[in-house]
Amino acid sequence: MKTINKTSSSEGVSVFLSLPKGMAPFFNAEPKSPGSARCRALYRSAHPFGSVGEITDLIQRAAKEEGLRAQPEEWFRSGWKVIVLSRDGGVDFPPEMASNRILLPVPVFRWSLGQRLDQTWLDLQIPLLLRLLQKSSASSGVVLCYAENLLKIQALPSQVPTADVVHFGVWAQPEDLAGKGVLLCPRNAPTELAAYLAQPTASQLRDKGVNYAFLGDAGIQLLSPEAAELLLFWGNREPESNFSALFLESLGDTPTRSKPNMSGRLSSSVCILETGELHPLRTGRDLIQSVSTLMNLELDETKLGMMGAKRHPNQYLQNSRFSFPLRLDANHTLWIENSIIPASWSLSYEHVLTGVPENNWDLKLEPRVCLDFSPEDNDDWCIKFYQINDRLSAALGKALWFGNPFEIWLRKRALTAEELFPDYKIPFADAKLFPVLPFERITPAFIEWLTQEDPTPSEEFTQLWMKSPKRSLHDSVAQMNYIRWEHQRSTLRDEGLQAMLRNCRWSVFYKADLQSSAELFGQTKLKLPPVTVETAEGYEPLQVVHDRMFRSAVMRYRQEPHWEHLEAEAFQTLCRMIVEDAQIEKVQPRRSIIEDQVVWGRCPVRLDLAGGWSDTPPYCLERGGRVVNLAVDLNGQPPIQVFAKLSDRPELVVRSIDQGVESRFTSYEELRTYAQPGDSFALAKAALAQVGFLPEFSSLSPYPSLKEQLQDFGGGIELSLLSAVPKGSGLGTSSILAATVLSTLGEVCGLAWDKNALFTRTLALEQMLTTGGGWQDQAGGIFRGIKMIETSSGLKQSPVLRWLPDQLFEQDYANKNILLYYTGITRIAKNILHEIVRGIFLNSPRHLSVIEEIADNARSAFNAIQMASYSSLVESVRESWRLNQLLDSGTNPPEVQGILDKVKDYLDATKLLGAGGGGYLLMFAKDRDAAERIRKTLAANPPNNRARFVHFALSDQGLQLTRS
Question: Which of 174, 346, 399, 759 is a Cys-bridge partner for 202, taking CB atoms 3.0 to 4.6 Å apart?
Answer without folding.
Answer: 174
